[in-house]
User: Fold this.
Amino acid sequence: MRLVQGNEAIARGALYAGARFYAGYPITPSSEVAEECSVVLPRMGGMYIQMEDEIASIAAVVGASLAGAKAFTATSGPGFSLMQENLGFAVMAEVPCVVVDVQRSGPSTGLATKPSQADVMQVRWGRHGDQAIIALCPASVRECFELTVQAFNFSETYRTPVVLVADEVVAHMRESLRVPEEGELAIIDRKKPSVPPSEYKPFEADEDGVAPLAAYGSPRVFHVSSSMHGPEGFSNNDPANAARKIDRIHRKLDMHRDEIVMTRSFDADDADVLVVAYGITVRASRAAAREARSKGVNAGVLQLQTLWPFADNEIRRAAAGARRVIVPEMNYAGQVAGEVQRVLGPERDIRGVNSYNGQILWPRDILETIMA
Amino acid sequence: MWCPGCGNGIVLSALLRAFEELAYSNEETVVVTGIGCWGKADDYVVTNGFHGTHGRALAFATGMKAFNPRLNVVVLMGDGDAVTIGGNHFIHAARRNIDVTAIVVNNFNFGMTGGQVSATTPLGMATSTTPYTNPERDFDICALADVAGANYVARATPWHGFELEANIREALRKKGFSVVEVMSPCPTHYGKYNRMGTPVEMLRKIREMVLPHEEYARLGPAQKKSYFPTGKLVDRDEPDFNTRYDEVRSRAMKD
Assistant:
């Protein structure tokens, strides 16, 4: 047990999950992930490589993953924007990889050292074209570790990129962390093909919606393409094939959404006032809810550990008996509040508590709206 | 799928013959492409294939080779991929000396999108987006690779098929970053906009643009401006990225 920074916990979690390749470009407030990897990976026979920009970083991660590595990168909003095109490639070509986005205050360079939670929609919709993605969001140093492990597990299980959406405060704060023993947390490796090399089709999915993935250099020769492709990986412009592909990259996550969507409940079940929170804001929300209870208002918190796919069912369930739902978040537009409104309907009393000046939300900010 | 008179087929057949002569196995070889006419070449190979995003082929290839040094990684890029949108990756791949081979087909314009200006379109030439001629200067791909630190740099044309194949073979054999630039005709677009005649006439014009580097070296400074040298231009044996990284690993493990 020792005090560990969130970014270090992310790096440790990645290594615990089996990551052996990191390619990245330094950016505040994520750079400690890179620094930690540059120390530890070469000692383990892995590789840290600093690329020329974030476009190249995610590209190298994708390349290494297809060569068999568990690979990842870490960045912040501006770098994440640059990664979008090749992240879309990873969705299209179904390449397992993990991208850490430590959110900072924007737009543009913005308040480069200050936190925000304004990348929620960029994570979901920032790429062109139809696509689905998994995004997880830690609220503590322990979750930085555990959700990074989970991010790799989802990525390997569903052959899809996963974004770990942290924020500057979670990434830079220090909390005690007991690193689990080897074997304590489940580690999942991607499904390997078992058919003979001549029969291997890299995009032919099993019943679970996921196609086994070989590695370059293995006996199974295969082809991967950014262009619309058929099961064998070569270009295919047939409309029926295109529809099948787009359906499948959505369906493989839809059919497993109950395993992917993770929430935590803090007195949410009997709450008259439900706070839906994610990331560092969960901490202030929990303090505010406790304070409200001591003042006679039954408040509770539903934490979204999974941001995408969105926790529609879990929110609907938790909010069933609530007269008011509050969504505190560090962005102007209420990016998650809008989703909550979509889930619960326009007639429900949903209130945002928003900070967009680089300052975190305090319990008193949230308490005010609970008690109002 | 390439147009009549395109050089791509000649370059691809030279590459495949080189694979055969070097006994490359399909399993341990990855052909990586970007986007463009030459970027379709991966569809015609039976090795592992990777068709990526525009300009980023070298960055994807870097990840593959860095993680698995046993792979033969060959990157096929046009002038758009290599030195226009992807110029940054090109110079950094050379600086890093990653052990991949880049075969750059330079047809002086963006063929697939209809013949627009590229970073290798010479000053004063016409394209679909420089109808009053190009106001910008062109990159010299080989010079760029040289100063950025590539271990092997050669220039060839589809006219010189045997030399092209020999250069590709040498580039594949060379450890470290190697580049073969192939100056190639695009009669459909670049040739049409600049009235370069039939495909054969255009190929002949490209032959007239180049001189073997030994002959080129004997020219005076003024004459040199009229030609590009061909053949092996750079041949070094600096340690490649993976060799250097193995040293990093040994230091880290002793730490």
